Amino acid sequence: KITGFFKPPDYAHKLAFACEAWPRAEEPGKTWVYHTPDTYLLGVALQNAFKQQPGRKGQDLFTNLLNADIYEPLHLSPTARTTRRSYDAVAQPFFGFGLFLHADDIVKLARFLGPDRGRIEGQPLLDETLLDQALQRDPQHRGLQAAHLTNFRYQHGFWARNLQKPLGCVQPTWVPFMSGFGGILVVLFPNGAIWYSAADDGELGSIDFAKPAIELAYLGSSCA
In whole angstroms, what is the distance from residue 88 CA to residue 214 CA? Predict the structure, then answer.
């Protein structure tokens, strides 16, 4: 069914699919439901809200905010500083997918989010409270449990896994990570280490970062 979202090249058909293809899993404004068409719908709302800000008419959220304020100062590659869009006059960024990152781009973005705490040259660019929650720095906000998986959480676009047992920690040790389709992972360990993997096989082994976590613990403990 999801092909009904990916195949249409234009903004209107993608938007209609995102709005109508499935019944609401939750009332608006309550619980975020993780789904690619929903992410596209959120991107449309953000794009429209951005254009309504003073001095932003005719501008683009990806080009004039994300790229200008974050990607360019981080010196990301030319491929990272573009995105797939709808093939029409709207040119709506996909937001939920459609980026082309080199390994160096992944590390720079992960360092910006993790060790640098959303700052560039000391200047905070992200909401510090929400970022701390997303990266499991706030023990009062661990996020939503992922289905029946008690050791996994989801919050503000980030997943988290409790590695207390594999690492032999005394208390729960929640490690935040970003996950892409098929086996793409970017893991931000509490000790400042960044680990990434790119696969497209959908196998559990491609997304299990317990063994790398054990090896990286030699660089510094990740236990809470």
Answer: 48
pLDDT tens string 50-59: 999 999 999 9
Give the chain's mean pLDDT: 92
pLDDT digits (tens, 9 = 90+) for 121-162: 999 999 999 999 999 999 999 999 988 999 999 999 999 999
Report domain extents, the chain: 3-100, 107-219
Q: What is the pTM of this model?
A: 0.90
Q: Which residues pair with 197 in a beta bridge?
A: 185
Query: The sheet that has 194-197: what strands, in order across it?
Result: 144-146, 149-155, 158-162, 174-180, 184-188, 194-197
Which H or E run contains 130?
helix 128-134
C-alpha dist (Å) from residue 145 to 5, 36, 148, 189, 198 = 27, 19, 7, 20, 25
Confidence (pLDDT) at 50: 96
CA of residue 201 relative to chain centroid, distance: 20
DSSP state of 103: H
Long-range contacts for 134-141 (Cβ within 8 Å, ≥24 apart)? 134/158, 134/176, 135/176, 135/188, 136/160, 136/174, 136/175, 136/176
